Each structure stands twice: as C-alpha cells, then as structure tokens.
Amino acid sequence: MSKLPTDINQEQLKDFIKNTNQKPFVMLNLLKFKKEGGREDYFRYLKESSPFGKSIGASVDYFGIPKELLTGSEDWDLIMLVRYPSRKAFIKMINNPDYLKVHEWRKKGVERAVLYATDPTEFRR
After folding, report:
1. Which of 59, 64, 103 is nearest to 80 (CA)?
2. What CATH number did the domain enclosing 112 receive?
3. pLDDT in tens, 82-94
4. Is the pLDDT of residue 6 over 80?
5. Please, which residues bridge with residue 83 across strands?
C-alpha cells in the first residue's frame, strides 16, 4: 500500500491499485495553495519531483490557471493534467522513498486538492 498522506481516499486507492487496466491514464489535478508561501512551495515540489515523473514516463499534458468559474462553487489556483504510462508506474513513483521526501513540499504548499485518475473513452454521437 502507498505511503502517501493520510488524506488520500484509502478505498479509492485500493481500487486504483487493483485496477487491471495498465494502459496510460490521465490524472486531473485541482489545486488550492496555502496563502503563505503555498505557491512557491508547490512549484518547488514540481521542480524537484520532475525527475521522478520523467523516470517513469509521465508528462504534463496541460498546466493552467483557472479563470472564470461558470458552474460550481470551489475555486482553484492551478489545474494540471498529467499523463502516466500506467497505474503500476504511478504506484512505483509514489512509493519511491526519495520521491516521498520531495512530496513534503507538496504537502507544505497545498491547502486542498482533488486528484482524479481518468481513463480515456471514446465519445460517440
């Protein structure tokens, strides 16, 4: 089992680990930074965690600052879409002891977050 923070949804993590689909997937990241230094801490995390992502073949597909909120009520400071080669690769990365040290910067900078693993699907009209 992962050694990630306690705020992770343990049931969903179990499903993630048991998921037999080992094809690439995209992780939606919705992030709200802590007011004091959160952005800086998170960007330090991004810089220092980048080699771990690259080592497993992950890539950032989209990186954006939310603007007009047309529906919903939660505001976010950053949205990212990160492509991972497989769930197994993601689990390998997040269990790397050196990655976990860098992950402390993420925990220090983020007030709240939503991470949503998504599988591609075909849209049919």
Report:
1. 64
2. 3.30.70.100
3. 999 999 999 999 9
4. no
5. 26, 59
